[in-house]
Amino acid sequence: MTPYKVLFLDVDGTVLTHDNKILPSTKAAIQAAQEKGIHVFLATGRPAHELDTILDELGIIDVIGYNGAYARTGKNIIYKKTMDPKLIEQFLTVASTQDHELLLYNEQANLFTSFEPDYVQAFIKHFGIKKNEYYRPEFINDVLGITVMHATETEIKNYNTPDDVFFSPVNVPGLMTNFDIIQGAVNKGTAVQAVLNYFNLDASEAIAFGDGMNDREMLTLVGEGFAMGNAHHDLLPYANQTTTAVDDDGIYNGLKKINVL
Fold first, then answer.
1. What's the confidence (pLDDT) of residue 181?
2. DSSP three-state, residue 70
3. Whether the domain at 6-81+186-257 and the domain at 85-183 fall into the same CATH topology
4. What is the spatial distance between Cα 141 and Cα 11, in angstroms, rounded to a whole number?
5. What pLDDT is attached to residue 26?
6. DSSP output for 27-60
7. Rounded Cα distance, 184 and 111, in Å
8. Beta strands 224-227 and 241-242: pairing type?
9. Selecting from 3.40.50.1000, 1.10.3720.10, 3.40.50.2300, 3.40.50.300, what CATH number does the domain 6-81+186-257 have?
C-alpha cells in the first residue's frame, strides 16, 4: 500500500506540454494514482473557471486555482482568499504608467484592462481562455489573482511591492514577459495546507510536481516535491526530487521513482 494520499499537479509545463497536449503517460500515471486511492488535485495559476476541459480529460474533480487563492474538492470550496484592494489599486496605477496591461481573475471571469495589444490576444489564444471581460472598478473586492502582461524583469521592479509579494514569470516559451503576482500569505502552498487540513493528512503523505516559481511553496511543503526537467532553474532549490521534462514522461517517471507506479 502506498504511503501517499494526495497528489498535486501544476498544469502548464507539468501536465500540459508547451503545445497544450497531455501525454498518454501522464493520463496513465494519474489514473494509476487514483486507483490506489490517491486524491489528485490540479494546482495551477490558471483560473478554476477555465479548467473544465482539462479536468474532464483527466477524470479529476479537485482543484487549486488562481495560484492558491482558491481550492475545492468536487463542488465543495475548501479555501478562498481575495486580494487586498489597496494592492490591486497600486498595480493598476503602476501598469497604466508602464505600458503594461493587467489580467485580473475573479471566480467567474478573466478581467482584462485591454484586449487591443497583440500580446493580450496571444495569451488568450495560447491558454484557450474564453470567459473574458473588461475589468471594472466594481470587481475590486472579488479579485483572486493578477497577471502583469508584457513586462521586462527591470520594469517589474517599478511596482515596489511589499516584501511578501513576488513575481513569477509564466514558464511557457514566448509568454515569459507575463508575470503572475504571488503573495506570501496566499500561494499554492497555503492552499495545499488547507487541503491537507481538510483531509486530516500530514505533509509527508503528499506529492507535488511543478516547473515554475509559483510552485516553490507547494514543493517545499509536501513530502515529495518534484521539479520537472523543464523547470525554471531557480525552482530547483525548493524541490527534494527531480524528474524528466513534461514532454519526456515527467509525471510518470517521477511517480515511478517513488514507487507509486
1. 87
2. strand
3. no
4. 27
5. 98
6. HHHHHHHHHTT-EEEEE-SS-GGG-HHHHHHHT-
7. 23
8. parallel
9. 3.40.50.1000
All three cell numbers of 252, joined, read 510518470
Q: What is the CATH number of domain 85-183?
A: 3.30.1240.10
Summarize pLDDT for 128-171 with one digit per residue, the tens.
999 999 999 999 999 999 999 999 989 998 988 877 788 888 87
Which grid coordinates belong to 150? Answer: 508584457
Residue 206 Cα to chain centre, angstroms? 17
Q: What is the DSSP string of 140-196?
A: GGG--EEEEES--HHHHGGG---TTEEEEE--STT-TT-EEEEETTBSHHHHHHHHH
Residue reference for cell 494509476: 32
Does the pTM surpass 0.85? The reply is: yes
Chain centroid to Cα 33, Å, comes to 21
What are 168's strand-pairing partners? 180
| Segments making up each domain of the chain, as ranges | 6-81+186-257, 85-183
pLDDT of residue 160: 80
- Can you give the pLDDT at residue 171? 76
